Design the sequence.
């Protein structure tokens, strides 16, 4: 429950009225809104080149009808020996060079698109991270927007029940050996391990990758600040699995392919948040992000994303406001860790988030193999 909704007193007719915000809090809120408004206006004034996107018959989109940008598009090997573009782009500095980059894309809804995304995850060695709706996450394939986990499980079950099946084959190149759930119950996200065998090599090469599914609430097409940080923690869990792999592909891609339904909202939010989060919390970096330069860094990174992914990368002002608030929370957290600035008490909002966080982690850590990692993360967050 937000602080403004806590009843403080009863009116004469017995109804309760919300506690009014203090003048200082109201002034800060107005200042933050003005900053977000100004930043959004700058982003909306960015020009975009003509013919920036593929036609739908070149790179098919899903029901969102959001086209794929041509600039820094990601390609995978096709059966004819050539390369084919997938609905995903490289996001990062100077992505035409070998510089490190993130990968953002649109969730597949057809089997051939699914195969292409799986090939990208396999051949990068980094797997796939997919945002899905809360309903799709909890009801599996009963949703109109099928998830990668549901589509792949459905295909595997179909092949198991087919008399003449040679197993599940991905893109005519990889045979599925196992597809194991790392959790035995639903949480805000799921993690699977996909192990495949490359069938056209001798000896046959065996590759395993994680696939992470984040089913966080997306209220009004916006991830709230607490959900944004939860999404980053799910990404950290994905990274933890990769850190235990014996080998990594030689690629400049630094994280899994991050997908969302339209491919320009939740994944854009997470990628931008993760990049700035690292700048906020890594004391070894020369760049120090604080409230005075946060807007400029956001402008730089979102502009960068729009040049590659398209002009709607982070596609609403409401998303920008939530992202901005989440990053301000991280700046405040860093300052609070400084003994000279540490607060002696926490706000109701902090306590509420931590309470929910603790309850979720208590359930999650009891069964997930990454228990030690997430328990330590939770402890650090609660300090």
Sequence:
């Amino acid at each position: 429950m937000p602080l403004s909704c806590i009843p403080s007193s009863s009116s004469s007719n017995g109804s309760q009225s919300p506690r009014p915000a203090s003048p200082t809090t109201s002034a800060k809120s107005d200042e933050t809104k003005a900053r977000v408004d100004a930043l959004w206006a700058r982003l909306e004034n960015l020009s975009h080149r003509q013919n920036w996107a593929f036609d739908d018959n070149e790179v098919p989109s899903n029901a969102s009808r959001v086209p794929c940008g041509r600039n820094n598009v990601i390609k995978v090997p096709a059966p004819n020996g050539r390369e084919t573009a997938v609905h995903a782009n490289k996001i990062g500095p100077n992505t035409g060079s070998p510089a490190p980059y993130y990968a953002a894309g649109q969730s597949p809804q057809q089997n051939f698109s699914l195969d292409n995304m799986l090939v990208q995850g396999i051949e990068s060695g980094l797997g796939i991270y997919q945002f899905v709706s809360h309903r799709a996450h909890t009801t599996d394939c009963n949703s109109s927007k099928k998830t990668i986990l549901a589509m792949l499980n459905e295909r595997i079950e179909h092949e198991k029940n087919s008399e003449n099946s040679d197993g599940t084959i991905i893109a005519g190149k990889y045979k599925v050996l196992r597809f194991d759930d790392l959790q035995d119950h639903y949480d805000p996200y799921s993690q699977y391990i996909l192990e495949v065998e490359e069938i056209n090599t001798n000896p046959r090469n065996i590759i395993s990758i994680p696939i992470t599914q984040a089913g966080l609430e997306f209220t009004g097409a916006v991830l709230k600040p607490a959900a944004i940080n939860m999404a980053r923690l799910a990404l950290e869990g994905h990274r933890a699995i990769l850190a235990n792999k014996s080998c990594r592909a030689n690629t400049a891609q630094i994280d899994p392919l991050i997908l969302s339904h339209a491919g320009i909202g939740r994944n854009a939010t997470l990628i931008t948040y993760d990049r700035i989060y690292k700048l906020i919390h890594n004391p070894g970096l020369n760049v120090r992000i604080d409230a005075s330069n946060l807007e400029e860094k956001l402008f730089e990174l979102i502009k960068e994303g729009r040049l590659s992914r398209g002009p709607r990368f982070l596609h609403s002002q409401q998303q920008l406001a939530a992202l901005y608030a989440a990053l301000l929370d991280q700046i405040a957290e860093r300052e609070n860790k400084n003994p000279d600035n540490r607060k002696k008490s926490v706000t109701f909002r902090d306590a509420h988030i931590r309470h929910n966080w603790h309850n979720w982690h208590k359930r999650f850590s009891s069964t997930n193999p990454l228990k030690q990692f997430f328990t330590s993360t939770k402890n650090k967050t609660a300090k």
